[in-house]
């Protein structure tokens, strides 16, 4: 499978396609790329014409020219489908790819045949006492760090977040770092009830990035949905590949 690049929404978007049949589009998660979802592509390319693309700012695709939110990534998906002449398709999205699809499927039900969300984000985490203590401690440490460390304040903040920020935050730079901050604080839960497509939810029971209780929110809110729990973490489709393969091949039969 060769990588192809097209200019879509004034951005160079890299994608692959494999197999023959009805279209199925696979979206990767935050900080990932096409390679991270090849296990999904290879599972279904004998039944579908499968597409996967690097979202703007990831892999070989160009970065957005402004700070984007989840709705911007959903709008980009709409543009990708138009550029590839896909009027209606099945969709699978992992993590942030699932979050993007929760917006797209609600806004464009006429383009979604069936939907599979794997360890999807979109539900904001529960704010426990320990969470607020961590936030308070983090802010106190930031204040102390910027007070006692010599140098320009902007440079000190950059050094602080580079040292103490989350893995995703540290991996992002410039515009994509600000995009990450925006995206991670957005809930898409208000879109779930508007999703009309039959939806398969697949989750790892040990997922610590989007814990299993979040899957229950998706399941309770999306009218035609069902949940399959795998033995794995946030990349449950890799951790428990055999069960994942059986579940999606049955759903997309």
TrEMBL record:
Keywords: Hydrolase. InterPro entries: AB_hydrolase, AB_hydrolase_1, AB_hydrolase_fold. The keyword Hydrolase applies. GO terms for molecular function: hydrolase activity. Signal peptide: none annotated. The keyword Hydrolase applies. It comes from the Bacteria. SUPFAM superfamilies: alpha/beta-Hydrolases. Residues 23-240 form the AB hydrolase-1 domain. Gene3D superfamilies: alpha/beta hydrolase. This is Alpha/beta hydrolase. It comes from Peptoniphilus equinus.
